Amino acid sequence: MHLGNGHFEKNCPFSEVPLALAVITTGISLILSFLGILGNILVILSVALDPNKNLRTPFNWLIVNLAAADLITGTITDPISVSIHFKLCLGKKNTDAEQAVYNMSYFISCTASALSITSLAVERYLAVRKPATYRNQMTIKRIVFTVAVIWLISLSLPSIYFEVGYILYSFVFVNASLVLAISITCFTYLLMWRKIKGRSHKTIANHNKSIASLSSTEREKSSTPLNDPTVSNSVVTSTNKMEEKVTKMFLVVLIAMFCCYGPATLFIYLINFCESCSCVALHWFLDLALISILINSSLNFFCYAMQSSRFRSAFIQILKIKRKIHQHHETVSRSVNISKDNCARSTTDTREDVQMEEMFEKLDAS
């Protein structure tokens, strides 16, 4: 068995792609393109505009970098995938140039996305491990350096594709990017969870120790008994809520990675090692691996940004701004039309416009 020179490259490159597979891939790519563009533009605008003045943090700049990588997937890779597979639906052949642009955009954007997820995991671990020195160490220069390294690797590594071909490089890609990203993310999240758990126990222990160290006189002077179960329960509840919130975010990210990168890794290994698989099966494996990785690029928006109340608030503010601009244009358009009508109708329509604007303002306020 020879990696990358097996059954597929010998017999299947020019075999016909199943029509059902081409249709399914076209439809899914179209949906993913829409989701990827909308969600990632919102993320980038939220941090760039920062309507609530609370999003420009090192972690969120790394999220912007992730959104930029996923936006490339949504604006370039997904639309080209739609075009290529739609041609296959019609029985047409794609040119080598089209296929090369498609493969390179796919490898570059998805490598950047996987490495960005890894950088987010490492950044969160550093924030939890050394919170006192984190802000001084995690400077803008370090963020820029991290982003530069991510894109340097993402732009240079896929150049191997031109030397070894799609099948063999897909094996390099899945091991250098996907497996590495999953391993580092799982390891750092495990360390982070242990650190948070240990810190929570330490907080509760320090609270109980401070109660025990107080003299009886100090306890009597206290307006609220420090050994009151409600006080201790509030400390436990707050720490438990923090643990649950962080654990929930970790689980969502890890589940998304395993559900997308896991099957993709399996399919790419089958493509490279399964010599008994038919060409039809290998074509399905190719597209399923592609779709699994592209789905992750669309899910990152929900895994990171939508879990943050700050991002959700920023989304609402941005959508309100767009809505008010749209309402303003509608009002101007109505006023031009009203001026052409008679005075009585103008008065009535103007009153209706004012009432409608008041209604929208009430809806916005609510």
Automatic annotation (TrEMBL):
Domain of life: Eukaryota
Membrane-protein topology: Multi-pass membrane protein
Name of the molecule in the record: Histamine H2 receptor-like
Family classification: Belongs to the G-protein coupled receptor 1 family.
InterPro entries named among the record's database cross-references: GPCR_Rhodpsn, GPCR_Rhodpsn_7TM
Span list, region Disordered: 215-234
Pfam families found in the cross-reference section: 7tm_1 (PF00001)
Transmembrane segments: 20-49, 61-84, 104-122, 143-161, 167-192, 249-271, 283-305
Keywords: Cell membrane, G-protein coupled receptor, Membrane, Receptor, Transducer, Transmembrane, Transmembrane helix
Major subcellular location class: membrane
Cross-referenced PANTHER family: 5-HYDROXYTRYPTAMINE RECEPTOR, HISTAMINE H2 RECEPTOR
One GO cellular component, as annotated: dendrite
GO molecular function: G protein-coupled serotonin receptor activity; neurotransmitter receptor activity
UniProt-annotated location(s): Cell membrane
Classification via Gene3D superfamilies: Rhodopsin 7-helix transmembrane proteins
Compositionally biased intervals (Polar residues): 223-234
GO annotation (BP), single: G protein-coupled receptor signaling pathway, coupled to cyclic nucleotide second messenger
SMART domains per record: 7TM_GPCR_Srsx
